[in-house]
Amino acid sequence: MASAAAVTSLADEVQCPICQGTLRTPVTIDCGHNFCRSCLTRYCETRGPDLGQPPTCPVCKDPFRPGSLRPNWQLAGVVHSVERLQLASAPGLGGEVVCQEHGERVYFFCEDDEAQLCVLCREAGAHGAHTLRFLEAAAAPYREQIERCLKCLRKEREELQEIQSREKKRIQVLLTQVSTKRQQVTSEFARLARCLEEQQSTLLGQLESLEEDILTQREELEALLAGEIRRFNALVEELEEKKERPPERLLTDVRSTLIRCETRKCRKPAAVSPELGQRIRDLPRQALPLQRGVKLFLEKLCFALDYEPAHVSLDPRTSHPKLLLSEDHQRAQFSYKWQNSPDSSQRFDRATCVLAHDGFLGGRHTWVVSVDLAPGGSCTLGVVSEDVPRKGELRLRPEEGVWAVRLAWGFVSALGAFPVRLALEEPPQQVRVSLDYEVGWVSFTNAVTHEPIHTFTASFTHKVFPFFGLWGRRSSFRLGS
């Protein structure tokens, strides 16, 4: 079988110089060049007659006589053989596109009708005034467009895959949090159940002891009263019987009987011990520890279900030279005197700020900051993205990766392109900062009164760090839990 290169070389030899396609009904003119009969006929119609001169060969420009066109049957046979070789050597032999009308292989593409044509379709004349190209030439610009579309689609697909991966991780984090919270709830309620059982046993024991003491007093009281009642019943019966006697019998020993009645001694029992009543009244006080324990349990449970306490410490590598950090890295104080701090890419050089040592890439975390501001001082609290600029001006706004509030001059402002002063009942001395990475919340509340201060919403994609800014002589802040 002929090689693809040989077939291509033969195909080039049987191309029409006018249409650049394979020769169809080839004819030879006086100079010996060959053309498609239809192509040369149209060529002659547009040349020669209008000028009063014979047309010239499209290849060598020699004049020829339009009436001297000679069919080249031998070349037509070669063309047919070449077409058969092309079909035989085609990679998709048996799967090539064939014209449904003529059964011939498709070689051309009509740009106007967007139709694929075989040689006979092209010769039919219906597409004579249309733009025709070989299939590969017509496909080339579309390949370029497809490549551009593929490039855009692949890029968007990568973005979607990144979003899918990120959101998948976030969902997994949320599921892990749910599992952790379930374990916390189970553990805390089991502990509460044990505590309640102990308290119940204690209170029931006290009630049982109190009941036994009350029953003992009741038995003693009833025994005493029963004896006295029997004695009085005997005296009453004796006097009633003596009263009914005739005079001679009534006067017998009447004085001794009356003396015994008049000199009787009634042993009246003491009232129920007041101590028993007091013990009953004191019983609710025995439940006060339980009440405080349940309240503490609920507070701890709500806190545990809400956020994980973050162990935050200040990073001296990021601290501005005007901030004095304590040895335990839990406190910072502003000073106009610059510290001898080595310069580095991590250190703030204009904004008097400092970051926490560790950042967060997920989860729900909370920490408390106690603020002590001197007159004219200010303190900025929040979180920042790890890629915020450390050198030069730092724009404190969410668009720059900073979600923070500022305490200054007795009020609090949410920082953004335009700071917004927040209406609060009282300026907080302790601020709780809470971060929910997956949901995208940065919340601030008064750690003492639990009054909400402000909440930012965001979509975190990088690690974020607790952020602290300070200004004003003798102003300071301290980290809490």
UniProtKB/TrEMBL annotation:
Keywords: Coiled coil, Cytoplasm, Metal-binding, Zinc, Zinc-finger. PROSITE patterns: B302_SPRY, ZF_BBOX, ZF_RING_1, ZF_RING_2. Residues 94-135 form the B box-type domain. Its main location: cytoplasm. One of its GO terms (molecular function) is zinc ion binding. Residues 16-61 form the RING-type domain. The keyword Zinc-finger applies. SMART domains: BBOX, PRY, RING, SPRY. CDD domains: SPRY_PRY_TRIM10. GO terms for biological process: erythrocyte differentiation; host-mediated suppression of symbiont invasion. Belongs to the TRIM/RBCC family. This is Tripartite motif containing 10. It comes from Microcebus murinus. The gene is TRIM10.
